[in-house]
Amino acid sequence: MAEVSGSELVRMAQQMLESLQAAGVQQLPSPSSLQTSIAASADIESELQPSKADAQPRSPVIEEEEVTMPEVKSSASTLEILSKEVAGCTLCQELAETRTQTVFGVGNPQAKLCLLGEAPGAEEDRQGEPFVGRSGQLLTKILEACHLRREDVYILNILKCRPPGNRNPTPPESQNCRRYLDRQLELINPEFICCLGAVAAQNLLETTEAIGRLRGRIHSYRDVKVVCTYHPAYLLRNPPAKKDAWEDMKFLMREMGTPVD
Ligand code: URA
């Protein structure tokens, strides 16, 4: 049999975990609970073959304990390599089957500020770039009001594929995509992240708090400062909220040391 190197074994184990996670497996039995199962099957065997069981010492029954599924991480060494990994992703079957292409992110790979949205819409799916539809046009104007161009910041989404009909991402979809988001942010290493809307904010910060309550203060994701504001699509539907979004942007720019008011 051909020898398998340690790193190959790690890669194979990671692939297996990814397939299990994609199939919806959230937890694996711990070695101790496996031992319990082995003990249980030995019990059944002993029922069938009493004489054999009598000859063997019984395994003690160990209290069952679950271990949480380990986080699956991407170890891509550059954004370019990561974007290729994302382009080939099939973890969410429905999204992989319905997308035109993945939408990785755009902007300055060394940006001080990342803008984080929810997921690509129809136009983004067509063009392969985040925030290029109507919401994107408004976002570009908001950035301009902050004396920023799209090329100065990095724009990305929680999901890299368009959910059909622009529905909200499901929790398994967000979880599948999380490894890419985390690695993307690790590679960009921004000082600030601005979450656009509840889906982005709640996913990144792993909270269920309403967007209205998340606004106006600094949160943290790893060592990065996070501010939250309304999604541009919401602002298009509710123009009076633009005033609040502008307050959020002024707060962010003050925190960044480049005030605009
Ligand atoms: N809405 C988002 O959240 N992201 C996009 O890229 C486009 C619209």
From TrEMBL:
GO terms for biological process: DNA repair. It holds the Pfam family UDG. Residues 104-250 form the Uracil-DNA glycosylase-like domain. Residues 26-35 have a biased composition (Low complexity). Residues 22-59 are annotated as: Disordered. Keywords: 4Fe-4S, DNA damage, DNA repair, Hydrolase, Iron, Iron-sulfur, Metal-binding. Its EC number is 3.2.2.27. It catalyses: Hydrolyzes single-stranded DNA or mismatched double-stranded DNA and polynucleotides, releasing free uracil. InterPro entries: UDG_Type-4/5, Ura-DNA_glyco_family4, Uracil-DNA_glycosylase-like, Uracil-DNA_glycosylase-like_sf. GO terms for molecular function: 4 iron, 4 sulfur cluster binding; metal ion binding; uracil DNA N-glycosylase activity. It is an enzyme of class 3 (hydrolase). Gene3D superfamilies: Uracil-DNA glycosylase-like domain. NCBIfam families: UDG_fam4 (TIGR00758). Belongs to the uracil-DNA glycosylase (UDG) superfamily. Type 4 (UDGa) family. This is Type-4 uracil-DNA glycosylase. It comes from Bythopirellula polymerisocia.
